[in-house]
Design goal:
It is a single chain. By secondary structure, this protein is α/β, with parallel strands linked by helices. It has a domain at about 5-175 and about 215-240 and about 280-295: 3-Layer(aba) Sandwich (Rossmann fold). The protein has helices at about 10-25, 60-65, 80-85, 90-110, 140-160, 185-195, 215-225, 245-260, 280-290, 295-310; strands at about 5, 25-30, 50-55, 70-75, 115-120, 165-170, 175, 200-205, 210, 215, 235-240, 245, 265. Helix 1 links the parallel strand 1 (about 5) and strand 2. It binds nicotinamide-adenine-dinucleotide and uridine-diphosphate-N-acetylglucosamine.
């Protein structure tokens, strides 16, 4: 048994990771300031974790949460492209200063591994698909810059201080507990919750932009595998299924799963939006045997079911 710190463990991805660790009998600490996450996300496994309500930018809170920790799975961040366009200074502060503080405190605490939730947004509009890790980064939003900066710090903490870090570049993650209500919500929970409520969702642009939508259990699995793959220290790795679906396709699939016949509204494209996104997932397979266990189609079914039942409560 090991001790894990999950930052952002009250959020969407972090709570799914913490739940999986608890179910495997691991010791888990969650550090979260509940700024975009919710204590309710931890309800089903709350008795199995130590919850520290604190800020990742706060050295004391981080040091306290890190006591005796073997592995850090650093998920906490402000995770929205539009939010970063509205408030680039705050997003930089949380995502960059929060990450360097967690790295520094993890180094001082002597942790065995530090896994960082990086983002495919780092690629920006690279002309070639699929996107692989050797491609040049061309961030299109302050959010993308902040997440990329975190990767650079992880890599430098490995080379300079010998802290084993690994950056996982997630591609559009979706699944249970992703918040549909925030003004900065992601597209999958927005489409599902609106259609379940009989409302008309909006598609920004012509809907022909595409994403490598990745069900959350795949990301959880990647974190568990990555934590122990010390041989990969300092690297960044794509985590996705390697498939690509347009927003129009996503919309019609969700509409048919929900069983409602509503046409979407079309509005202007969003500033900072990447056009196409699809991952090359070979490196993750080679480095730590990652594979996409739950496909987009299966994940979408599970997700619609989850929102349907959670809204019936
Ligand atoms: P989320 O908003 O659901 O979770 C983020 C969590 O971090 C929340 O619980 C929030 O309260 C916490 N947090 C924010 N600022 C904090 C601070 N200063 N101190 C402590 N806790 C703080 O978002 P998510 O979708 O679960 O994203 C998790 C991570 O994955 C983020 O780092 C994000 O950049 C990254 N990521 C997400 C996606 C995606 O598609 N959701 C894709 C690529 C990368
Ligand atoms: C998402 C994540 C980001 C992550 C990135 C990389 C969220 C909120 N954002 O950004 O953290 O780093 O993937 O994988 O989880 N759209 C609509 N209608 C809507 C909302 C969105 O058409 O109501 C469109 C957007 O314009 C965009 C696509 O859907 O083209 C995806 O948007 P979104 O879910 O916000 O994700 P990304 O911006 O790709």
């Amino acid at each position: 048994m090991h001790k894990f710190l999950v930052t952002g463990g009250a959020g969407f991805i972090g709570s799914n990771i913490a739940e999986a660790l608890v179910s495997k009998g691991e010791e888990v600490v969650v550090l979260d300031d509940l700024s975009t996450g919710h204590e309710a996300n931890m309800e089903s496994f709350r008795s199995g974790v130590t919850f520290v309500n604190g800020d990742i930018r706060d050295a004391e809170a981080a040091a306290h949460a890190l006591e005796g920790v073997d592995y850090v799975l650093h998920q906490a961040a402000l995770a929205s492209v539009p939010r970063s366009i509205e408030d680039p200074v705050l997003v930089n502060d949380v995502n960059v200063n929060g990450t360097i503080n967690m790295l520094e405190q993890s180094r001082l605490a002597g942790v065995k591994g530090f896994v960082y939730a990086a983002s495919s947004s780092a690629y920006g509009d690279s002309e070639k698909l699929p996107k692989h890790e050797e491609m040049l980064s061309r961030p299109l939003s302050p959010y993308a810059v902040s997440k990329l900066t975190g990767e650079y710090y992880c890599s430098v903490f490995s080379t300079v201080y010998g802290l084993p870090t690994l950056s996982l570049r997630y591609f559009n993650v979706f699944g249970p507990r992703q918040d549909p209500a925030s003004q900065y919500a992601a597209v999958v929970p927005i489409f599902i919750s609106k259609l379940l409520d009989g409302e008309r969702p909006t598609i920004f642009g012509d809907g022909e932009q595409s994403r490598d939508f990745t069900y959350v259990s795949n990301v959880v699995e990647a974190n568990l595998l990555a934590a122990r793959s010390a041989g990969a220290a300092g690297q960044m790795v794509n985590i996705a299924c390697g498939t690509r679906y347009t927003l129009n396709d996503l919309y019609s699939r969700i509409r048919s799963l929900v069983g409602i016949d509503i046409e979407p509204l079309y509005e202007n494209p969003r500033t900072g939006d990447v056009k196409h996104s699809q991952a090359d997932v070979e490196r993750a397979r080679e480095l730590f045997g990652f594979s996409c266990g739950v496909s987009f189609e299966e994940g979408l079914e599970k997700t619609v079911e989850w929102y349907r039942s959670c809204m019936c409560k």
